[in-house]
Sequence to fold (240 residues):
Amino acid sequence: MDQYDKLAVFYDKVISGKDHTSPYVISRLKKFHKNAQSLLELGCGTGDVMAGLQELYRLTGIDSSKGMLKIASRKIPSAKFIEGDIRSCIPVEKFDAVICVYDTLNHITLFNDWKKIFRNVSEILNEKGVFIFDVNSVYKLNMMEQISPLIHRFDDHYLIMDVKKRSSSVFNWNLKVFENKGGRKFELTECNIPEAAFEAGKIMNALSERFDVVRVEEESGRKITSVTERIYFICKKKSS
Fold:
């Protein structure tokens, strides 16, 4: 079972938190590709971000979790959803914009696979197409390890997150959801999700072959610093 299939039913309440992401994507597309009509999200999950875009764009989402896609398809019936690995699943059609947000890319632990995704995105973007993605920074994942474990209560349930560094770039997120079944009876759902983080300069170098990187920023629009936790990249496909 996909690790996120285990979390699908809880995801929107405890993991998602994407309220600001859709407005951010809209604001950047209005600035850098105001005529965009079609949009693909890589790693769309339960469709939280896409739900905030459905009035403006023709939407397609790709995700490897059947459980997540089932929720997304109910949430946004007008969108097209594809079950697949974002490293290798390449739609036949092309898009004006591609997004990969809320640290989806961090879940790919090999940097060569990041390069493969960048190549694939460039191939499915129309001319003047825009690629927007974010990543958890190296600083954030190191900080998360230092302050772990974290306990979050939602409704009558509990989430415990414990982040541990496994190598120079890879961290493991151990997630335990204790679902209240009534009174003092709880049912445990546990999964382990790896995340990798790489320095912004390394990412920009990998992008430069196929994209013009027009912005590297925080969600607020400010320049990134050594303590930025989430980094946004806005890229335009290079002219052929």
Q: What stands out?
A: The chain has two domains: 3-136+199-237, 139-196. The chain is about 30% helix and 35% strand.
